[in-house]
Hints:
The chain is built from six helices and ten strands. It is an alpha+beta fold.
Amino acid sequence: MDHTFEQNCTVSYKVLSPNTHGSDHHYEIDVCASAEELRQFDREGYLVREGLFAGEDLKALQDALDRLEDRESGAFRDSGKRSWGRIPRHLMDKDPVFLDLLKFSPVLSIARAMMGPLVRLRGLSARISYPAAAPHQTPWHQHLRVVSNPLPPWFSRPHGLDALIYLDDLNDDTGAVGIMPGSHNWLDRAPPPDVYEPVEGELVVRVKAGGGVLIHSNLWHRGLPTLRIKRRMLILSYTPTWLRRSPHGGPPPDDGLTQAILEGDDEEARILLGKGGYT
Length: 279
Ligand SMILES: O=C(O)CCC(=O)C(=O)O
Ligand SMILES: [Fe+2]
């Protein structure tokens, strides 16, 4: 697979004023993707990105995650039970290296191109998986599974973008990621429950450390087993501003790093953290 993001495009949106006194807001987004890539993302529900991070930037993320893991969990001890591995949450509250990702344009610009200018962070979490007696892996799943069946007359479809960012090479030792192209548009069915096996039509993706796979939050996907080498990933997620942040992991820590930003005067950052952004 050969996806590059040398070719940027510009997307312009006008957000109409909600009342007769206000004025329309114009946004011009310099998108880190070509127009064709955006169309493919819409159609297939995924976009593969090599080299989102490299060199010192990649090392800084790896080190920050290792420090956090050390602090929160210590050395890995195998429980012998099947699991997803370790999932530290609220990363932006815990290390400035992670907070720097709030406006990471190779992801944020695409989120805005796909969902409009008014998006917010849903969360930044990580998944750390180890080779274990029962190898860490995930079943097929999707992230915003709130689709009613039958679809109500005023159904509001949940959209979100999750950037799965890999801090280690994906291969048969660490575990690839499996995705089902087009499945984000399947509103009449859910991923098969508790299934860890391939499903027909699956695309198995391997990227190098620093690469990622951007997915629509409702794309069916699974993390293949980590068999021989520890594997680290980040999930950077955005939704429209009017969705709540991820409920997983409870509320953010009171003394987290995002607090100062919410109280500060960087309006764009405040919107990204969920304050305002719509009327
Ligand atoms: O580890 C992966 O490749 C996917 C993990 C995942 O889907 C998740 O943590 O939600
Ligand atoms: Fe997932």
